[in-house]
Amino acid sequence: MDTSLATSRLSAEFYAQPIDITTPYLTGVNQSVTTLNSLSARVYDDLIGLQTIDTSCFLFQAPTAEPYAATRATAVLAGIDDDILDQLAVAGTDELLDELGDELISRLEVANSELAQVYQEGVAAMESGHSGWIRHAGVSFRTMFDHLLRHLAPDSDLRSFLEDPESDMVNGEFKRNARLRYIFREVATGSYAQMAEQDIKLAEATFFPSNDIVHRLSSPLSPKQMRVFWRRIQGSVSVVLEAAGY
To answer: In terms of residue numbers, what domain contains 224?
Structure first.
């Protein structure tokens, strides 16, 4: 309940911001989070009806934990104050996300051990607190996620998967959206198709703050915002790995 309330209040805070920061893109991202929240609520209702099935504690927490992390990341993109992020944090949910982050390393190891190492370099930078840790962590997470998409959706497979490969390319490179569509190809069907569309949008959204970190001389994110952004990276990478069978 606390997690859902925090998510709703932060979403309301987003819409209360001045119109000049709620760009069409940010509005689209927040709408995707709202849709994800609604779809997750339906999943939760379905789980409640399966009382005779032995389900894990996490399975019941997941429909609220993922929108929570996604909404907080959207707030970072919108420049919501750190004080508000602190006020609407839920300690128990953050602890759950920590556990998922630990599990993520072992799953990355199976997919590609080098990428797991790059991810751990980002985490180590965050834990060090040294000068420039935000830039170091941001570059590590961006590099890891970008190369993970290339690893899970190689060019050769994309050319046979896409009807018109050239339309999904920019400057000779396949768009991230094309790689994500390939990765989600087996799960983006039936009743999950709409949710997969939102998952893909949220995965793409992680590259916006990370691009700013790479291209600006001064960090565009505060330490609090960087930690929230890290949560979003964890969630998106976890979902992408799951869709790819890891």
So the answer is: 2-243
